[in-house]
């Protein structure tokens, strides 16, 4: 009787399926790497924007404090000027009063 050996299953379809799976896996890995790079770039960008906002907020607060100090200085200067002007008016009034008194004294002589 002739001897029949079992033939091995065809290797090409299994390799083709394996190649397809490997190519999909490689593509997926590339996509994951690209997404990780995008995530890292976005994280760096968000961090930089947060730092910029923090800096600008600090500058804004500093500017507001400077403006508040300027307002206080202007108010104190205005108060000083009002006092000086009041003193000038008082001096002028008394000078005028003494001038009139002096003129009356001259008329009496």
Task: Walk me through what this model shows.
The chain crosses the membrane at residues 82-103. Keywords: Membrane, Transmembrane, Transmembrane helix. It contains 1 helix and no strands. The protein is an all-alpha fold and 109 residues long. The chain has one helix at residues 11-108. The protein is 90% helix and 0% strand. The chain has a domain at 13-80. The N and C termini lie far apart (173 Å). The longest helix is centred in the middle third of the chain and has 98 residues, at 11-108.
Question: Tags for this entry?
Answer:
109 residues, mainly alpha, 1 helix, 0% strand, rod-shaped, transmembrane, membrane
Beta-strand residue fraction: under 5%
Q: Which geometry do the CA atoms define?
A: rod-shaped
Q: What share of the residues lie within helices?
A: over 70%
Based on DSSP secondary structure assignment, what is the total number of beta strands? 0
The poorly predicted ranges are none
Which radius of gyration do the C-alpha atoms yield? Answer: 47 Å
Oligomer: single chain
Q: Roughly how many Å apart are the termini?
A: 173 Å
Alpha plus pi helix count: 1
User: What does the largest sheet look like?
Assistant: none
Topology order in helix (H) and strand (E) letters: H
The mean pLDDT is 84
Overall SS class: mainly alpha
